[in-house]
Amino acid sequence: MIAVVGGAGYIGSHMVKYLHERDESIVVFDNFSTGHMELLPPAVKVVRGDLASLDDLRALFSQYPMIDSVIHFAAFAYVGESVMDPSKYYRNNLANTINLLDVMLETGVKHLVFSSTCATYGNPVSLPITEEHSQQPINPYGRTKLMMEQMIEDYAVAYGFKFAALRYFNAAGAAPDGTIGEWHEPETHLIPLIMDVAIGKRESIHVFGSDFNTFDGTCIRDYIHVMDLADAHFKALNYLKHDVQNLKLNLSNGQGYSNLQIIKEIENITNLKVNYVMANRRPGDPEKLIGCADKAKQIIGWEPSYDLHEIIETAWNWHEAKFGGSL
Ligand SMILES: NC(=O)c1ccc[n+]([C@@H]2O[C@H](COP(=O)([O-])OP(=O)(O)OC[C@H]3O[C@@H](n4cnc5c(N)ncnc54)[C@H](O)[C@@H]3O)[C@@H](O)[C@H]2O)c1
Ligand SMILES: O=c1ccn([C@@H]2O[C@H](COP(=O)(O)OP(=O)(O)O[C@H]3O[C@H](CO)[C@@H](O)[C@H](O)[C@H]3O)[C@@H](O)[C@H]2O)c(=O)[nH]1
């Protein structure tokens, strides 16, 4: 059985959908601080609990002693907020993950796949970013994720944990059947915010920074479909169960798009006008993040299957249906 920690969140719920459709045995552990019950299939087992509580974690593993692996998504994940309120990030991402690891240790569960991020690299010195690129995060969020990687590696060496650190680039898109998608409150991510403008929920979007060293002055990101991420987690977990090596893998499309290009692409796909205002840089934002995911292809046989057009189409189908009607 797989425990999906943070399974009610954006990426976690797509993982749950992926596993549920393959009849995998799963249980979701979540405190619903940013997650939503509505994103989960009704038949899925759910334990409401907080990583901050050793008792909640022990209850999870004693209620489901058949758990043999954990996929860990639970964290706070807003780059800008982490600069303003780092305590929140060190507490939840780092300190609370120690609880999870220790209870896994107590119960003998040693397979762990977890959400790392390209934010651990900082401002790249070479592109595309490979896993060998130096890791010098430029915001507290990225630092918590790098520390998590290091801590988990220490547990692996000392206690025989098997782990996969999956360094995703920018997660985006929604389930192709339109049932679930990105739902953060408050929303801070570029694509759903632009879509809020397209549906008339917001008047305009602020584009943070127009003086970056990029072709149009705005930041560049590499967007990866959330179902591609789910597929990679499943492949990484299966790999860990049969092979000796631990994994540190980038999950990306290998294509960078500027913030203004994303606005244009959404206008083209939706046929709607998006008003935007150029604004100051947001502290903590790296200029360009583009990943090389060749290693994931070589080692776990994973390749992305959705391009930017499909990412935006699936995101739009969900976003318009979910948030467009209530206006
Ligand atoms: N969204 C991205 O672009 C992106 C990119 C790279 C990495 N990541 C990482 O992927 C993971 C998931 O991101 P997301 O966008 O789905 O975030 P999310 O906020 O939608 O999901 C996080 C889930 O974890 C739960 N959670 C948080 N703290 C908890 C705690 N203490 N105890 C129990 N449950 C808790 C939340 O309720 C939520 O359901 C995070 O670790 C994030 O750092 C995200
Ligand atoms: O109102 C907005 C919101 C965002 N942006 C810009 O859009 C880009 C993407 O921002 P956002 O969608 O917030 O994603 P990131 O800050 O890149 O962070 C996401 O992607 C990271 C990997 O790059 C993950 O680690 C984080 O968890 C996840 O939130 C950045 O240049 C932002 O400054 C704007 O210009 N205006």
Automatic annotation (TrEMBL):
Its EC number is 5.1.3.2. Keywords: Carbohydrate metabolism, Galactose metabolism, Isomerase, NAD. It is an enzyme of class 5 (isomerase). InterPro entries: Epimerase_deHydtase, NAD(P)-bd_dom_sf, UDP_G4E. The keyword Mitochondrion does not apply. Its cofactor is NAD(+). The keyword GTP-binding does not apply. Residues 2-246 form the NAD-dependent epimerase/dehydratase domain. Transmembrane segments: none annotated. It catalyses: UDP-alpha-D-glucose = UDP-alpha-D-galactose. Pathway: Carbohydrate metabolism; galactose metabolism. One of its GO terms (molecular function) is UDP-glucose 4-epimerase activity. Belongs to the NAD(P)-dependent epimerase/dehydratase family. Homodimer. This is UDP-glucose 4-epimerase. The lineage of its organism: Bacteria, Bacillati, Bacillota, Bacilli, Bacillales.
